Amino acid sequence: MASVAILGKNGLIWRELSGVQTHSQGILPAIQDLLSEAGIALNECDAIAFGCGPGAFTGVRTACGIVQGLAFGADLSILPVISLLAMAQAARQDGVEALTDAHPVADFVCILDARMSEVYWAHYRYADQRWEPVVEPALSSFALALEYANTNGYLAVLGNGLILPAELSEMKVTCEVAYKMPHATQVAQLGLLDYAQGKQVPADLAQPLYLRNKIALTTLERMQLKAAG
Hints:
This protein is an alpha/beta fold. It is built from 6 helices and 9 strands. α3 packs across α5. It is globular and about 55 Å long.
């Protein structure tokens, strides 16, 4: 699923799209539709925030290309937002782990499917009305990321397609688990925070956050993995 949003003085509006060719055929019309609803032109925006990854290679690369084209054309700066942090923001906003006087700090271990029996994950802490990266985005096995959350008692925020596999049952998972995906609404909100801190960068720095260069196993590697159990 792809999403776009506009955050302005009149609030937050967004669109969600689904389908195999969403990014290439649906994003630009959706953006134009949002601009029309907001009653503004693209060059009247302050900056463009986007999810820079980690995530699906095609989606992240396409997002970077679209953002660069829009930013160059409208002479705007950009705000790269890490997709895993957007997941943490979504979980916090939904009150999955509420902040109280007794518990002023909230920890989120966000995990996305990276295929090839691996996951992308990071640990973010929310305290004093700001986010702190405790563990930067990494690539590992699902078991390692989940064990980290479970051992420390942190909330595990899982992306779509990730379920607790049977082979991890021996881990005796006791940590709370929530399911969220990166979304344009949280990307916009985090981008606004970065913009207020002067973190915008030129359009030519709209680069994907890659944690590996390989996106699929060969047939032989798949056979070897299956044989190894």
